[in-house]
Specification:
By secondary structure, this protein is mainly alpha-helical. It has two domains: 254 residues, Fic-like fold (Orthogonal Bundle); 87 residues, Winged helix-like DNA-binding domain superfamily/Winged helix DNA-binding domain (Arc Repressor Mutant, subunit A, Orthogonal Bundle), CATH 1.10.10.10. 56% of the residues lie in helices and 6% in strands. Helix 5 packs antiparallel against helix 6, helix 5 runs parallel beside helix 9 and helix 13 crosses helix 15. The longest helix is centred in the last third of the chain and has 38 residues.
Length: 395
């Protein structure tokens, strides 16, 4: 990405609680990228072909049928959120997350990591369902996504606030001198974010190219004190949803990015070194891989749902309009359920839901997670195994 390095001075701070060498004044260079609107972009034929192939794979993914598009869509959002969190060092697999959600739904305590990943899911849902549908995407929409992501974090005081101080990546904790990368000074952030929002609202570039540039530029600007990576990856899906390329299902691009995290970081670094085409090629390859992975996964989930229905039919089958059938359709979006979650997902009464759960347990579709009758939760048999495989890129 073309840009300018500006030399800045970090002021001497005699009262800083740090070794003496970090209290001294020092010089550092901050990088100010050109605005996306000023970027001169010319893609070679190979990259154009990669972009086209990735976009077709996402269209194929979104053509996979489902009786409950929202449930299947939420399933992929979960995987995207888990993978995006893992890139930031939050290690939690699909099984652990699902059980944490069930514990939270029944009033239990969960780990900080589980809480942060659940917040990431909430932020992703906001990004694709709300922020992607506004007429003009604006800085306030970025703030709302970040607010949702960080509002329950230990450093929640930074939630929904653009930084007003210099930040940096790598180096030491006390000053940016010697850092691996120093983003633009805070005074440049509002102008660059306004340009970024304009790029999100634009439709002149192919969607994959647009998403690649928006994400890399956002990570370069680094407008928050924390949560930049997860917010920036959510913006990928804002672009793909707004351009109607991912109308129903988001390709879990973070799964592909996270499987080779060093390559991902190297790609962003190369982007800042003006290898924009190389970054777009890498991003298109990751989008293609994730879309094909997700397509295979959705077919496997549909096959599992058909097996569940056969298991239910093998019993004295409920009526065709019974809540048990509706709950089977909703399970992909809720790998673990409580009575409250099942009632909301099916729009059925508590007595109807309790009967449905009883029938699905008898059919081997659900199994209880505990013997505590006061705060019961159930797991969809086989679904979490598929989720874990998707998170590992094993399809």
């Amino acid at each position: 990405m073309p840009g300018t390095l500006v030399t800045k001075t970090w002021e001497h701070n005699p009262v800083l609680d740090a070794p003496a060498r970090y209290r001294r004044a020092c010089r550092y260079e901050a990088f100010i990228p050109v605005a996306l609107s000023a970027l001169e972009l010319k893609l070679d034929a190979t990259i154009v072909g990669a972009v086209s192939e990735a976009e077709q794979a996402i269209r194929d993914l979104n053509a996979v049928p489902a009786n409950d598009l929202r449930a299947m869509g939420r399933l992929l959002l979960r995987s995207e959120s888990i993978a995006s969190s893992k890139i930031e060092g939050m290690q939690l697999d699909a099984r652990e997350l699902a059980r944490a959600e069930a514990k939270l739904d029944t009033g239990g305590r969960i780990s900080d990591t589980a809480r942060d990943v659940i917040a990431n899911i909430d932020a992703m849902i906001l990004a694709v369902d709300t922020a992607a549908s506004v007429e003009r995407f604006a800085q306030r929409d970025v703030l709302e996504i970040h607010q949702r992501l960080m509002e329950r974090a230990t450093n929640r005081h930074v939630a929904g606030r653009f930084r007003t101080e210099q930040n940096w990546i790598g180096g030491n904790d006390y000053n940016p001198c010697g850092a691996e990368f120093v983003p633009p000074p805070p005074d440049d952030v509002p102008r660059l974010l306004e340009d970024l929002c304009h790029a999100i609202n634009d439709d002149l570039l192919p969607p994959i190219v647009q998403a690649a540039l928006v994400h890399a530029q956002f990570e370069t600007v680094h407008p928050f004190h924390d949560g930049n990576g997860r917010t920036g990856r959510a913006l990928i899906h804002v672009v793909l949803r707004r351009r109607k390329l991912a109308a129903h299902y988001v390709p879990p691009i973070s799964v592909a990015l996270g499987m080779a995290r060093q390559r991902y970081v190297a790609g962003l670094t190369a982007f800042r070194a003006d290898d924009v085409q190389g970054w777009i090629q890498y991003f298109a390859d990751a989008a293609l891989s994730s879309a094909r992975l997700a397509t295979r996964y959705l077919h496997a989930v549909r096959a599992l749902g058909e097996r569940w229905k056969e298991q239910l039919r093998a019993l004295p089958a409920p009526r065709s309009d019974a809540a048990a059938w509706r709950l089977i359709e909703a399970l992909p979006g809720h790998p673990t359920v409580t009575t409250a979650v099942a009632a909301e997902a099916t729009s059925r009464s508590r007595p109807q839901v309790l009967l449905a759960i009883e029938q699905l347990v008898a059919a081997g579709v659900l199994r209880p997670l505990s013997n505590n009758r006061r705060n019961m939760a159930w797991e969809a048999v086989g679904l979490l195994d598929l989720l874990v495989q998707l998170d590992l890129g094993a399809f």
